[in-house]
Design a protein that fits this description.
63% of the residues lie in helices and 18% in strands. It is α+β, with helices and mostly antiparallel strands. The longest helix has 102 residues.
Length: 196
């Protein structure tokens, strides 16, 4: 009987320890839940930091793209400047040739006309190579994208109203863009109804 009573006592002690064991399990489970929540918060914090880093990196890449575009535009402008300098140099050389030619004229009208035509052709070829066009046409309708009207020429011919009378200073178009508008005078119709 002693054996049974010792066993019973042992079982009762074990049973009495169950609430303590359950309390420990509950507290450990609570600790695990807190640790899980902390891990989730840490994970969310890391995700937020990663998103912020990605935004910063995207901003940096956009700025770099803008700088790249600016550099490309500057390089393009430099190459255009080189073309214009080349054209101006060729133009200056042609003018110099023209000046020398006129100094040497002594009744050789046929020869200097041929030389002048050669210089004109050389200038036209250089302009075509450099994508440079001179705005110098007369008797065409005034285009305010190409022309700046600086004076008026009266006309009695109604069909000439609004056309270029004279080009005072030629304009320049480079690669399809107007660099300088031509300064022109334009015809204004002065018929009987406008006279007075």
């Amino acid at each position: 009987m002693l054996f049974f009573s010792a066993r019973r006592k042992e079982k009762n002690e074990s049973i009495s320890k169950i609430p303590l064991i359950l309390d420990k399990l509950w507290s450990e489970e609570g600790l695990q839940e807190e640790q899980w929540k902390l891990q989730q918060e840490n994970y969310q914090t890391l995700l937020t930091r990663q998103r912020k880093s990605e935004v910063v990196i995207e901003n940096i890449l956009e700025v770099l793209d803008e700088y790249k575009t600016i550099l490309e535009e500057q390089n393009s402008a430099r190459s255009k400047e080189k073309v214009l300098v080349g054209y101006i140099s060729a133009y200056d050389g042609s003018l110099h040739q023209l000046e020398r030619m006129f100094r040497n004229i002594e009744g050789k009208e046929g020869e200097w006309v041929k030389q002048l035509e050669g210089i004109k052709k050389q200038l036209r070829d250089n302009m075509e190579k450099s994508e440079l066009k001179i705005i110098k046409e007369q008797d065409i309708t005034v285009d305010f994208n190409l022309h700046e009207v600086v004076g008026i020429c009266d006309t009695e011919q109604k069909e000439k109203d609004g056309q270029v009378c004279e080009v005072i200073i030629p304009g320049i178009i480079f690669e399809g863009n107007v660099v300088n508008k031509a300064k022109v005078t334009a015809y204004q119709y002065k018929g009987e109804e406008n006279a007075g």
